TrEMBL record:
Database matches in SUPFAM superfamilies: FMN-linked oxidoreductases
This protein's UniProt keywords: Oxidoreductase
Transmembrane annotation, as ranges: none
Gene source species: Algisphaera agarilytica
Oxidoreductase keyword on record: yes
Pfam families the record matches: Oxidored_FMN
Name of this protein: N-ethylmaleimide reductase
Amino acid sequence: MASPSDPPLFSSYQLGPMTLKNRVVMAPMTRCRSTLPGEIPNALNATYYAQRSTAGLIISEATHINPGGLGYHAMPGIYSDAQRDGWKLVTDAVHEAGSLIFAQLFHAGRATVPELLPEGMGPVGPSPIPIPNGERHTPQGKKPMPTPHELTPEEIEQLVVDHRHAAEIAKAAGFDGVQLHGANGFIINDFLKDASNQRTDAYGGTLEKRMRFPMAVLDQLIDVFGPERVGIRLSPLGEHNGIRDSDILGHFTEIFQALDAKNLGHLEVLGAPWTGEKNDQVNAAARANFSNTLIFNHAYDAQRAHDELAANACDLISFGKPYIANPDLPERLRLGHPLNELADPYTLYNVDAGERGYTDYPTMDAANA
């Protein structure tokens, strides 16, 4: 347990009923190492997450909630019994290593291609608006993202049911909670932002209507796990997968307020490095309008993380890419030790790379042995 004199990044933190050993969060990062067919988590995944259990909290890579939600080749799912059992290997390993882990629930929405999906399926979205110049890597090479099918109200209701089922699978697999992926131009983000949601029914038009589907999903997740074990990841300023919005600060201030009204356990806000002052404004709006645990993710180093926490700008800091190559990241940050560099990019998102660039990065102790 950290002492009161420790820098804030390395002090313990109470997330609802859960005590985190530090304020370092391992951010969700797709690594494409599940077993095929079936997108099933495996023993190699368990090793990867156990190595990185130096974080106070791990948020898993994106896990698709149904077969049509797959966005990347060999990303894991969380809807079948086999996937449940595979994830149990991971959660057991993380708990034994002394950390906590949430499952990130995901649906690709319009950001996928038919070549990745079961026969007869394709991308879906709130409106038939394709991602401008969108492409996705597949085993057959790069493929363009077509115009998505506009979801019917009945199909939207089924997606709510599918998210609940995924949460039930996550709970049975031993996850400590769930985080809804509401960022980066995937299905939840598609509904929230007005450039991709131009519906005129109960699920589009006003912000209140655009929030209807995401909030219905959160209600189901809360019903399964309780509010303190449910969170959401948002990227208000992000434009990944062609996502735009006409009034980012105004709209997301209202979204933060709606999340707060649900007593949601945590909110993770992704910054955008090129936005400067706008990023600070969005972060300040999140802090002012959301009462529970606030997580920032914005290419942090140790000093910036300490400064944000000391100023009470947020409660936890999540780290993405640095955790790929540095399983002992908190200790390296604490000691000011140099970070390992990323290996060949081929190994980042490639199931065929196996353990290379995945579980073979050395800790400080191993490197100095």
